[in-house]
Amino acid sequence: MMQTQSIIPGILEKEQEQSVVYGSIDFGKTVITHPRYLELLNKASHHLKILPHEVLNEKGEPVELCSSVECKGIIGNDGRHYILDLLKTFPPDVNFLKLDEELSPEIRALGYPIEQKHKLSCLRQELLDAFADDRYVTFIKHAAFHLQQLNAAKKAAAAAEVKREEAVEKTEEGDQVPKVEANNNVKAEGSRMEEAVKMMETISEGVIPEKLATDSRDVVKRACGAVGSLKETEFDIRFNPDVFSPGIRHVDNVDAANSLRKQKQLVKDAVEFLVLKQIPAFVQDFLDHASAPMDGSTLTEALHARGINIRYLGRVAAKLSQVKSLEYLHTIAVSELILRATKHIFTSYMQNCEMISMALAISHFLNCFLASGTISSPLVGLDELQKVQKRRNRRRNGKQAGPSVGVDNLEWAQLTQKSLWQQIRRELKVYWDWDLACDNLDAVVEMYKLQKISLLRAFCVKVGLQILLREYNFDARHRATFHEDDILNVFPVVKHINPRASDAYNFYTTGQSKIQQGCFKEGYELISEALNLLNNVYGALHPENAQCLRMLARLSYIMGDPQEALTIQQRAVLMSERVNGIDHPYTISEY
């Protein structure tokens, strides 16, 4: 069993160089490997679509890895194998890296690459899965097409042989037979696809009929070449996470199917797939009413489900602005963009604040962000803070000490409404490549139909801010909207990933497909099975259980059982209140 955590038994008893038995601690200059780690990581890399690869160490010797070079493997005192530094587990997003490699003309026409402050932009696992699935469908189609051509050629050759042997009076009849059969082959695309899939499975198992061996291998080879497979004899789409890492020397076999050039091209194809296919498909989901986000958090979940990173939110907002019927969703996207840009600025802003003046600094920031009236200088309120600090120092040290709130610590007080919104516009352009057409709050609210109270609530949730529950007058012209006493608490915001029950998810998505096809009874059975699996995995109370119950309630109502639908929906409401909270978007939809 392999653990992923930061507290490792015995890690402090050794030097770092002695502890690490796998990976690199100096950005690839020194690389080591371990057979047990290769065995464990190879199992995980198969599911994560990570390609085992070889790099050169400082001696020029090849070292095999099944992860990024920067992953570090440490064997703890308890004998278990731990792995750290998983930031670069997945391949980099080359749309946000300045590289020597050129992107496709379509991507460059959209303004990429965009260089970000950090070099940690990576693709999501959901995108890699979607890309591999898309390439597999293309692979099967190519194989079916070449298989059709192969069969047509064989039948044409057989027909020609028949024509030579038959009498002259039967020549016309012989001419028509292959044409009719060829037309039937064109119409029977489903059967060809099934035949191609069976052929792929047969070849992957290594059992090929002798008469079809040469032809089948040629068909597979052509299909593999068409989709960029890293093997010539079977479909293999995996990614090298170190393929664009600077300073890493790779073992490259130029003539092999998995050459470094092909590995790089595969990563570039994946980011092109994200921009040109996934984002348009994401917008199409809303037009088809397959998804309906109600706020920024649910919009983020929908983006991640498609494998789209938040750094593409500006591109998504631009796409949504072109669809009149999705104006409400464009408003949500713009709100999320502004809030995230403001959060970036707020993080830097708070680093310059002393603890004693934190409440005053936060209230000043909120006034600059959300208030419409003229804001007085926050330095007026610092006199009382300095007096309090003096009294504390006198009691603590027995003598008078200077105030901790000095001139050097008052950079936050220089912030104004105009300067803040200039920073927000600049951050939106640099990070998301999105242009905000306004330079003040009132213009933004009017143009994009935002609500100030919604912005306040979402901002507090994002940065971990608790404020006094009262009615705030954002339009006051001669007094501040927020005061020092309104700031009650600041708490850490912890991000986490919920593990997904894959079998239950497959049942649920299949049930949704059946419902869209009009097969309500089959869809009901599939979603019921998904609910049973979720109960076994998560227990009785879980957000995904509530979603299944909501779907079952709708299906019961559609199928003519309103009493059963009402009973199930009541369970969904109670469960959502317990696990999500009363003000969560999912709970609102349950009502």
From TrEMBL:
InterPro entries documented for this protein: CLU-central, CLU_dom, CLU_prot, TPR-like_helical_dom_sf
Domain of life according to the entry: Eukaryota
One Pfam family, short name: eIF3_p135
GO CC entries: cytoplasm
Gene Ontology terms for molecular function: mRNA binding
Cross-referenced CDD domains: CLU-central (cd15466)
GO biological process: intracellular distribution of mitochondria
Name the UniProt record assigns to this protein: Uncharacterized protein
Species of the source: Phlebotomus papatasi
